[in-house]
Specification:
This is Lipoprotein. By secondary structure, the chain is mostly beta strands. The protein contains 2 helices and 11 strands, in the order αβββββαββββββ. The chain is globular.
Length: 202
Amino acid sequence: MRQGALAIAAVAMLAGCAQQGPAGPGATLGTAPPGFACPPAGTNVVRSDGGNITYSGAVPGDPFACAGSLNGAPQNWLANYYPVPTTDEASLRRGMAALWPLEPGKSVNFSRQIGSPDGQLLFVNTTWHVLGPSTLDVGDRSIPVLVLEQHENVPRMGGYAGVWTLYYDPASRNFVGGDHRVLRGFSNARNWRVTSLTVPGS
C-alpha cells in the first residue's frame, strides 16, 4: 500500500510540473525561441538507421516546427527533433523552447505525457544538457558539432530510463548523430549517424 501511495504521489507531482512549464518565445504556437531555425528547404539527410529526410522549411505559421518528409511520407518535427503532432504537445513545446538558444552548460527539465502501446498515458520526465563543442565524422568529412544529452525517465514502477548523447550541427541546423544508453527497462533504440548531408547552396 505504501509503495502504491508513493507512486500516486509521484505522478501527481509530475502532473503539476507538466502544467507549469517555462514560458517565452517558442512556448506558444506561432513563435520560435531565439537561435532556432529549421534547416533550409531542400536539405537532405540520410541516416544509418534507415531514415531519409528531406526538409521543406518551417511549418506554415509555426517557425518552431520543421516540415519535410521521412522516407517519402510527410512528417513535421518540433525543434527539429520530436515528431509532431504528439500527445501533450504543449508541455513538450514549453520545455524545448527553454533549451534554446543552445549554450554550453545550459540545462532544462520538463515533464509530459505520452501514450503507451496499450493505450495508457504515462508521464515522462525529460532533462536536456548542453555539454559543449566537439567534432563528428559525417560522410567523408569531420564537422564541428555541439554535444547534448537527453535523459528520459518513466517513473512508473519498472519504467524505462535512458540517455541519448546527441550531436547537433549548427551549420546545417540538424542533429547528425546519437548514442543511446539504457539505464532501466528496455528500448529498441539504436545508435545512429548521418551518412550523407546535402544543404542547398553549400
